[in-house]
Amino acid sequence: xxxxxxxxxxSKFAAMQLENMDGTPTTPAQDIASGIIANTLDQGLLMxxxxxxxxxxxxxxxxxxxxxxxxVEDVFWNDFCDNYLELVKSRAYGxxxxxxxxxxxYTIWHCLRTILKLFAPFVPxxxxxxxxxxxxxxxxxxxxxxxxxxxxxxxATDAEASFAATVSVLAAIRGAKSDKGVSIxxxxxRIDVAGEFALIAPTLxxxxxxxxxxxxxxxxxxxxxxxxxxRFTLAITFAEAADVA
Length: 245
What we know:
By secondary structure, the chain is an alpha+beta fold. It has ten helices and four strands; from the N terminus they run αααααααβααβββα. The chain has a four-stranded mixed β-sheet with strand order 2-1-4-3, covered by helices on one side. It is globular and about 55 Å long.
């Protein structure tokens, strides 16, 4: 029940963003090669998704259904829902450049379509309904030949490392707000970041929007919260209560 509800809610949000999409997607790898999906965060997620397709396919080939579901749920819950949709929300709404918005919309299209197909063997009815309603294809999601092909996804590059680093920093920001006892939307004036700043530099727009951060800069001597992977240390300056009011 929890999975079906999450699939419904995530699909509902994603479908709203697809209304802003121009053109017709091909495959993730081709859309990256053509420059439509140019954002590093988007590319990193599609690489993660391609790895999930590989794992799930291999598990099904070995009749390891629980392992297949584990691979699919990991990319759906952790990468797509908990992190990517929160990070990309502002850009998908059009608060960055038109090109950046299209990169987000195309990525959401590929991710949702693939995730529904990966979940189809486990929750066949809700995936069929969502697939038909959102993608308006005449073919059933359960038709032979509709299973995702890992070859359609890009190979791992630095974009995947950037995606992981961005998620790690966002988790630290969320943790800092939780420790302070404030909402995730509570504004932050500035974050000084010590660590491999080059990894998060391409995703700063999304990261600042998701964390409601006004400014984020590299620093050699920032002291404060260390990310779980120990790659970054964040010195966070919260907005004053008067400013928030």
